[in-house]
Amino acid sequence: MKKTSPPSESLLAALPAELLEGLFAQAPTVSLAADQTLFLAGDEGDGCYRVDAGMLKASVVDPGGGERILAVLGPRSVVGEISMIDGEPRSASVTALSDSKLSFVSRAAFEAFGRARPELYRHLTTVLAHRLRYTNDTVAATSFLSVKGRVARALLTLADEFGRDVGQGRIVIQQKVSQGDLAAMAGTARENVSRVLQDWANRSLVSRLAGHYCLENKAMFKQASVK
Description:
The protein is α+β, with helices and mostly antiparallel strands.
């Protein structure tokens, strides 16, 4: 069976650059301070936001009251587009992890752009189909992953979005992330993340540089993320 490749960007961010730039050409700017909430799950989906600078998280609260981070969003990511398109309430809460700047497109502006550029919807249909395939593949894969596998996958996600290659296979994640954040991304307890990270640190597989996580061997984490 052909494996679906991971989407590198959010839904609208995967549009052709010319369409995306046209959509956000007249968008007003929104500024958020670290820890400030952009919107909450259940809020009305009145538009979408492109991240121009900073880092945000999209999260939900599980039945036990714990947080589960669904995505970490950096520059060029677009958030809030699903509820803007289908008219349903926001499915997740989005909070700034650092001071951030965003551009906002309202539903009315999106629909007006779509009327002027109908090819927008053709591209969205293709992207949505790809995302659905990838989601199905991911759910099937992660349901069998160990705790180490889920933590490795969380670190790789952050490395792909915010990593800087410092040579010899070492990747520094250039955003400060807590063990609690990793636990929420991996769907496990913070204590489990602490044990996994300590084990990897003892084996010189992960280190800390000025408060940032550094993957000493990215290839090892890729192997661990499928086990």
